[in-house]
Amino acid sequence: VGFLLEARTACGGLVLAKDIMEVMVFSDLEEEVCNITIRKANESAVGVYVRLDEFVSRGITKHRSSDMMFGNSYLDIQIDGGDVMTREARGPYLVEASTTHEEFRAKNEIRIAFVKKNSLLAARIVIAYSTVVDYCGGSITSREGFIGIPEIDGDFDCVWVLQENPGNGVRASVT
């Protein structure tokens, strides 16, 4: 008896955004519908920030069904329960269109609904998210991450302290 175990990210549910930028990656979505709600975890945050880094159809999926579907998969994006904006997935051969870096901001929450309309192509989605803050700096204890504060521009002073257990090294890259 043989078997194959596959670990993949489950799609859907509630995601609580924090002050540090985090990233969700869905590489081979098989679900026909996937609903994600991104809310601020801390009520003191000014809002929610979401950046759609990639939304593309690519390759042939491992899963084929007898009822084939053809068309472009899409995302419906709703900000604070208001109007819905739709974004279509780009085809697998449009390399220049695979990255979008489109930004969305909301006061409380951003809802993203993925709808699969093509059973032959796999969808890849990369979403970066965080809360919107009007301050910068602080203590960082996570093992890895990315600091991004899109709302702050112009001249400002920030101090971040990277903390690690004594005896361990700390490495930071500034770009």
Concise synopsis of the structure shown:
The protein is mainly β. The chain has strands spanning 13-17, 22-26, 33-40, 47-60, 74-79, 84-88, 99-106, 109-115, 121-132, 138-140, 160-162. The strands form three sheets. A five-stranded mixed beta sheet has the order 1-3-8-5-6, with no helix packed on it.
Largest sheet properties = 5 strands, mixed
Distance between the first and last residues' Cα: 51 Å
Number of continuous helical runs: 0
Query: Beta-sheet strand percentage?
Result: 35-45%
> What's the overall average pLDDT, rounded?
74
Structural class: mainly beta
> Can you identify the CATH class of the domain at 13-134?
Mainly Beta
Helical fraction: under 10%
Shape: globular
Using only C-alpha atoms, the radius of gyration works out to 19 Å
